[in-house]
Amino acid sequence: MNILVTGGTVFASRYTAEYFAAKGHSVYVLNRGSKPQSTGVKLICADRHSLGSELRSLNFDAVIDVTSYNGTDVSDLLDGLGEFRDYILISSSAVYPETLPQPFSEEQQVGPNSVWGAYGTNKIEAEGALLKRVPDAYILRPPYLYGPMNNLHRESFVFECAENDRPFYLPGDGSQKLQFFHIGDMCRFIDLLLEKSPDQHIFNVGDPEGVTIREWVEKCYTVLGKNPHFISVSKDVPQRSYFPFYAYEYMLDAAKMCSIMPELTPLSEGLTQSYEWFRNNRELIVRKPLFDYIDSELGDLK
User: Fold this and answer.
1) Is residue 41 a contact partner of residue 3, using CB atoms and an 8 Å limit?
2) Residue 228: cis peptide before it, omega within 30 degrees of 0
3) Across the chain, how many H-helices and E-strands are there?
4) Domains recognised in the chain with CATH numbers
5) DSSP letters spanning 241-258
6) What is the pLDDT along the chain (302 residues), one digit of tens a residue?
């Protein structure tokens, strides 16, 4: 297939481009050429907001849009495209209002989420702009993505705590649930969509089980053969100042995804892959000042 992947230089879009290139497809990446490119892909060096006729002569079997964050992003890309067969947009679980019953299902009405703010409403706008012009497009709504190439300071933060034998400052009792989706599983699911062309076009994707914060941290430490020493932090302390996720528990109903792709990467295996990548790519992590806050504000809790 001829496949266009938007972005192609960082985490989800880079992994996606390399995944399909490794399977022998002709993969084009659309970015501004300001970062190192993957081998085995063809760079279209352009800005999606000023494409002109850059893409008009190219026909794509699939457009995998990983980097649209609002309606303008989608519309400008569509304006510049020539012919294509399938369009797959990576949206977000942030499109569901936190007031809806959980687990969130694809049939529920999307709307503003007070935790995610503009990020969620912009994703809703992106979905609407796409469906208005490409009604049979596929839309994926993942929870937290993780795995190799994740440059966000999430599992890498926990790995650093484990490497340095730091105590782990746990939000409350650590019972808040998190839901993850391995980036490789997302690519496998995209592959299945292109192969099977299911009638369902909007999918929640993610591990249907979820995991508590405590369990997730323990699994990260176990990758390094260590056990965390937990220190509980009061709910009065802003969680994102010392921990990489919001104090917001949600779950997606991923039953429709599982009916197509029942086998998922076990979390322990996925975290092992994450650490192997992190060990060799530490400089790519976009770090947050979590350690600074912990050391300056939470030291008395020891």
Assistant:
1) no
2) no
3) 9, 13
4) 2-146+181-204 (3.40.50.720), 155-179+207-250+265-292 (3.90.25.10)
5) GTSSS-S----B--HHHH
6) 999 999 999 999 999 999 999 999 999 999 999 999 999 999 999 999 999 999 999 999 999 999 999 999 999 999 999 999 999 999 999 999 999 999 999 999 999 999 999 999 999 999 999 999 999 999 999 999 999 999 999 999 999 999 999 999 999 999 999 999 999 999 999 999 999 999 999 999 999 999 999 999 999 999 999 999 999 999 999 999 999 999 999 999 999 999 999 999 999 999 999 999 999 999 999 999 999 999 999 977 76
The rounded distance, in Å, linking the Cα atoms of 186 and 165 is 33
DSSP one-letter string for 114-146: TTTTHHHHHHHHHHHHHHHH-TT-EEEE-SEEE
Q: Tokens 């192997």, residue?
A: 276
Among the residues of 197-280, which ranges form H helices?
213-223, 255-260, 267-280
Distance CA 274, CA 222 (A): 13
Q: How far, in Å, CA of 294 to CA of 291, rounded?
A: 5
- CA–CA dist 88, 202 (Å, integer): 10
Q: Cβ of 258: how many Cβ atoms within 10 Å?
A: 16
